[in-house]
Amino acid sequence: MGSTTSDANEQQALDRIASSTSEEDWREAAVVLSSGSGAEVDHELLAMFHTALDRGEDSRAELVSRILAERDPDRDPSYAERLLPEPVAEPGRGERLAEWLVGEIPPGAEEWGFTRLRRLEPVKHYAGQLRDGASTARLLAAGNLGDTADADAFDVLLPALSDRSRNVRFAAVQSVRRLAEAGFAEEYSGHAVRQRLAELLSEDDRLVRVAAARTLFLFGDEALVAEALSRTTWSQRKLKRELEAVLRGDVPPLPKMWIGER
What is the pTM of this model? Predict the structure, then answer.
């Protein structure tokens, strides 16, 4: 009975994506489909992806691509080769997509699900961008590492937490929290990124400090946040109010990377 109900729910979700353009319909359908794994539904999703590209329905193709990556992160990425710019595209060679990502990591990679496809080695590619890229590329990489669902991303995020750019540091903090919330809380608690977040409670930028405080609080380090609050001065009234809110448990959710994110 359970399997039959699940199959019916997935078919209804497929129909909603195919027939609707409502973001709410797509969100609800994506939540259902992203947690499935059946081969028959995969086949229908792949057909829908290519049909959407043929019709120029990029938003629909993007959503379906992300769902495919969620359903099977080890999926062969060659289904997306049609997205590659010429002359990079070579039919039947999924590694070409990986080579393209190495050089560019295009904006919107997370929306298409490329951040989840393990065969593209996204953590490795984003590590290269953080090491060698300009500020915009480093910012994109720091933000997308949190969407890789790969604990190895903590190693790459550690130096990003000390990046010269405030925006990159902030994005890296957000990514650490996203990974911890995605099921890697144990790996986070034993990693050096946790100590680095504690150090960020004393850094100059208020937004980075508050973001670090929120992550530390959510994963059991209330005492560190309380200590940081005790060090605030009369001239840091806004920071004081924000840290007080954190200690009350007033921690807003992270922005969604895509509409089907739970």
Answer: 0.90
